[in-house]
Amino acid sequence: MSKNSNGGPCVQRNEEYSYDPVRWLNRMVSEPYYLFHLLVFFSYIPIRCSAFQILSPVRNSFLLKREIQVFVAYCVLAVVKIVRTESWESFIQDTLLFAKFFLTAIALVLDYHLALWYALAFLVIHIIAQQPPYEGLGSSNHLTPLQLESLLTEGNTSRFWLVEFRAFSTSACVCTSSFFPELSITYSNANLSFGTVDLGLFPNAAERFGIPLGSLNQLPVYILFENAIEVARFPEFDSEPYVFGPTITKKLLCGRFELDKRLLDYVNGK
Fold it and tell me: How far apart are CA 160 and CA 194, in angstroms?
């Protein structure tokens, strides 16, 4: 833990630590979300071994063909996803969704009672466990609403503040949780600072900054402040909550704010 030039707490990203295989393995077995999924997925192995002793050779051969087809389809989807994804959180969420769908489909071929059991198990996991977000803050500050207002109004802080308003109870915020820290490492300087406000902890701050919470898929919201005045936001304010919001990517965020002439001048030190 360290502090940046603005005095706020800052967690610097460590690339080796972030992608350490041992750390990820430890996280897989310690986080309830991952652990429960692993237990359910691996439960198919003893079930399949027991079924092999009971089913006829013809039925076993048919089931094996379906399992191979499902495995190949899953691998293809996983490869496509890993090529197109911009965060490990998004990749894990989508590949787990594919795995749950295919496992339930195979279980349905084996026995519909087993398929119902898996569907119930995945529903329970969805209710009791949540996918962990990216842990680092990069060069950004984790702020309370009062701290944000104080920093915006102080004359000796950065002229520009780019603030992410998020809530990790939504899958969109979890999937994009690494974008903001990575952008903050690239663009943070004396004139531009980054901060995050967790609306899950401070829901009353949403109204203060004009963020509608009638639909949680409005989050995350990114607002650029210049001398305590909002000059840009993404996504744009919509008085009617949308069902399918814009897909947020690092490239889209970078383009949305970097192309602002005033911000570009300060980022480049002109």
Answer: 9
Confidence at residue 251, expressed as pLDDT on a 0 to 100 scale: 60
Helix (H, G, I), strand (E, B) or coil at 46: helix
261 class by beta-carbon count within 10 Å (0-12 exposed, 13-18 middle, 19+ buried) = exposed
Residues 126 and 123: their CA atoms lie apart, in Å, by: 5
Q: Which helix (H) or strand (E) holds 223?
A: strand 221-226
Q: What are phi and psi of 88, to 5 degrees?
A: -65, -30
Which of 259 and 167 is assigned the larger pLDDT?
167
Distance between CA 30 and CA 129 in Å, rounded? Answer: 12
Q: Which two tokens stand for residue 213?
A: 């919470």
d(CA 250, CA 253): 5
Beta strands 141-143 and 192-198 are parallel
Token pair for 206: 């949403």
CB 215 within 8 A of CB 242: yes
Q: Which residues contact 140 (CB under 8 A, 6 or more apart)?
A: 10, 164, 180, 181, 184, 188, 193, 194, 195, 196
| pLDDT tens-digit readout, 26-39 | 666 678 899 999 99
CB contact set of 147 (below 8 Å; sequence gap of 6+): 8, 141
Reported residue count of the chain is: 270
Count of helix runs (H) and strand runs (E) in the chain: 13, 7
Rounded to whole angstroms, the Cα distance separating 36 from 28 reads 10
d(CA 44, CA 252): 41
C-alpha 8/C-alpha 20 separation (Å) is 27
Q: What does the pLDDT look like over 131-153, one tens digit per residue? A: 988 877 777 888 888 888 888 88
Query: What average pLDDT does the segment 73-79 reach?
Result: 94
Kindly state the tokens that stand for 172.
């969109």
Question: Average model confidence (pLDDT) for the chain?
Answer: 79
User: SS3 for 268?
Assistant: coil
